[in-house]
Design brief:
The chain is an alpha/beta fold. The protein contains four helices and five strands; from the N terminus they run αβββααβαβ. β4, α4 and β5 form a beta-alpha-beta unit.
């Protein structure tokens, strides 16, 4: 893995998502593992620090951002909204989409919470 440390749960979620994305034709995958380039910061203005997504990939000339929704993310939902709103805006400009990686048994709850927000995000369901 890269210099950043991620939890075993997040690592498992990302690796499951990467396997799926490869099958679906995504390329230029950037993830926090040594075999991939690290994702770069996303920001509105060059003067801002921005946020680093969990994973970025490309497909059909669009840029897609993937964020893991582990237990910590689900508990601190409101704290992450500014970051997720920025990612949603960015992917829209780049002809892509923001995806939340969630376990199948939690995906319906996540979908309900997403309905309350003004985002075009989708959910990538993975098995626990």
């Amino acid at each position: 893995m890269a210099n950043t440390t991620i939890s075993k749960e997040r690592e498992r979620m990302l690796k499951s998502a990467i396997a799926y994305l490869r099958i679906k034709g995504y390329h230029e995958i950037k993830a926090p593992f040594k075999e991939f380039p690290a994702p770069q910061s996303v920001f509105r203005k060059a003067s801002e620090a921005g946020f680093v997504p969990d994973m970025i990939a490309e497909k059909d000339f669009g840029t897609f951002i993937f964020e893991c929704l582990d237990e910590e993310s689900l508990e601190n939902w409101d704290e992450r909204l500014p970051k997720w709103n920025l990612f949603d805006e960015y992917t829209e400009r780049k002809m892509g989409k923001l995806y939340f990686i969630a376990y199948s048994d939690e995906a319906d709850t996540v979908a309900e919470r997403l309905k309350e927000l003004d985002m075009n995000a989708k959910i990538l369901r993975i098995k626990r």
